[in-house]
Amino acid sequence: MILLRLTWLSLLNRKATLLLILASISISVFLLLAVDMVRHQVKDSFSSTVSGTDLVVGARSGQINLLLYSVFRIGNATNNISWQSYQEISKHPKVDWSIPLSLGDSHKGYRVLGTSQTYFTHYRYGKKQNLDFAKGKPFAGLFDVVLGAEVAKALNYKLGDSIVIAHGMGNAALVEHGDKPFVVSGILKPTGTPVDRTLHVSLEAIEAIHVDWKAGTKIPGLNISAEQALGMDLKPKQITAFMLGLKSRLSVFHLQRSINNYRSEPLQAILPGLALQELWQMFSLAEKALMFVSALVALSSFIGLLALMLTSLNERRREMAILRSVGARPMHILLLLVIESSLLTCLSVLFGVALLYLSLGTLSPWIQSEWGFRLIVQPLTLWQWQLLGILMLAGSCVGVIPGIRAYKQSLIDGMAIRL
Amino acid sequence: MSQAAIEIESLSFAWKKEALTLQIPQLAIQSGERVFIKGRSGSGKSTLLNLLGGMIKPDSGTINILGKNIGHLSSSQADHFRADRLGVIFQQFNLLPYLNLVENVTLPCRFSRRRLLKAKENYGSLEQAAIELLAELGLDSTELLNRSVRELSTGQQQRVALARALIGQPNLIIADEPTSALDTEHRDRFIELLSQQCERHHSTLLFVSHDESLKKHFSRVEVLQPNPAGGFCI
Questions:
Q1: Where does this polypeptide localize (chain A) (predicted)?
Q2: What is the DSSP letter of B190?
Q3: Three-class secondary structure of residue A83 per DSSP
Q4: Which one of A75, A326, A370, B4 has the minimum C-beta count within 10 Å?
C-alpha cells in the first residue's frame, strides 16, 4: 500500500523530532503495563503465601500488622504471647493442628524462624501445597537448621555447612550467637513465598541460643556452651504467633471469638483471607493512584503527539500539495496522517512492551534481593492486551484531528503550492 | 486528431462575491497544442489552474476537458479525473525529499490506475517507464538514479518533475512557472525538452508564466489581462 510506504518514509525523514515523541509514548505504555503487572503479581504472590490456615493468632494489634509479621515476615511483632496460651489453645478440641512461630533473629539479612515439626507437615502455600525438601530433612538435632531455597542459593550453602545466627534483624553489625553455631540439615524447594527467604530452626534452638541472654543483650559472665545447653530444659517461654488448622471450617468464627476473649492474655485471632482483603483495600487506593498517574502520562504523551503533528502540518503543506498534484485525494491526505499516528503508536507499543520485558528480566533479581519480591516474567494478560488496544485506538484517533485539518487545508490550497 | 483538449465557455469565477476574479468568455485549446499563458502574479493563474484541475468549480459557464464538463463532476470524480488526465509541474521543490528519483517519477501511477496501465503498456514495467523517461531527459547515469533527490540541482529536479508529469501519458500537462528558478541557459533547454516530450507523448501543454521572453517557444500565446469589469480575463 503506497500510503503506508509514504507515511513510513515521511516518518523516517522527520525522525529526529519523532524519536522523542516515540520515547514519550513508549514510556507511558511501559508504565501502564508495569503498574498493572506489578499489582497483579503482588496480589498473586501474597495470596499464594498462605493457604489452608484457618486462623493466625498473635498479640493484640491490627489484623494487617499481625498478618504481615507472622506470615509475610514484614515488620516486627508488637508483643509476644506466652507458651502457656499457645499450649492451651492448640489443645482446644476443635483444633486439628498448630504451628508455633518465633521470630526475632536473623542471618545475613534473612529471618530466622523458630517453629516445630508441624511446620513441615501442615504449612501450606499456593494451591494447598506442602513444603518439599530439595535436599536433606527437617531439623532433628537442637542445632539443626533448614534453609529456604533462596537463602541456600544466595549464600551458597550446602548440607552440613555451619551457620551462625545473629540477634535481631537487618544487615547492620549485630551481635551474633557465635558460641552456638547451627548445621544445615535440609534445604527446601522454591515456593515463591517468604519461606524461601527464611531459616528454620526448632523453638528449643531459639531458647537455647538465648539462655545466657536477657533483655536483648548477653548477660556478662554467664557463658553456657552449646554442650551445656543440650542438657538444659529448653521449653520455650514465649512465641511470636501461631497458625491454626481446624477440624471443621465451620467453627472458625466461634474459635476466633473465644481466642479474642481469652482471659489470661490479650490475644487476637485473624482469618488470613479476610486480613488479605483488608490489605487489598488499603492497596487499591495506591493502586488506583498509580494507574491514574500512568494514564495521565499516557494522555500527556498523546497530547504531545497531537501538538507535534499539528505544528508539522505547516511544514508539510508542500508535501501535501505535491501529493495532491500527483492525484492524491483529500481522503488520502487524511489517511496519511491517521496512518502516521497509528504507526507511531504501534511502534511505541512495541517499544514499551520490549522495555517492560527487558526491565523485568534485568531488574527482577535486584528487586528480589532488595525487596524480597519475585517478579515473574509472564505473558500479557487479556486486560493488558485490551489496554494496548485502547492505546492503539487512542493513537489512531489522535491522527484524525490533524488529518481533518490537512484535509480542509488541501481543499483550500488545491494544487497551488504556497511558500 | 483535433478533439478539443480544453473548451471554456463564458466562464466566470469569484473568490468573494463582490470582486470578480476571473472571466473567460471563450477559450478552446486543441489536443496536442502547446499554449503559453502569460499572466503576472495575482492575475488569477492559480485560480485558472485550480479550475482546470477541478479543485474549484466555476460560478457560471462550463469547462470541458477532453469532452467532459468537469464542473458537473463530484469532487471525488474530479479527483479521479485529474489523477488520470493531468500532469503538473510546479515552480520548484516539486519532489518528495524522502523518495528516490524513480519513486518520485512513478508516484502518479500509485494514485491513477489508468496511468499505471498506460505506463506498463508502453514500457513493460513501471520501473522501466520511469527509468526510460528519465533517460529521455538526460538523467540516465546509475550514479544519478541512486542519489537522494536533495542532492540534485534545480534543473535536474525540474526534469524529474517533468518525467513525473509525463508518466502514464496524461492528456494534459500543466506547467506553472516551471523555469522561474532556472538560469537562462537551463531555461531554454528545459522548455525545449518540455515541448519535445509533450509532442512525443501526444500531450497538450499549458505553460503558465509571467516571463514574456519565453513565448517564442510556443505556437500560441494567451494573455491573462486586467478586465475592465474587475479581475482578469482572457
A1: Cell membrane
A2: H
A3: helix
A4: A370
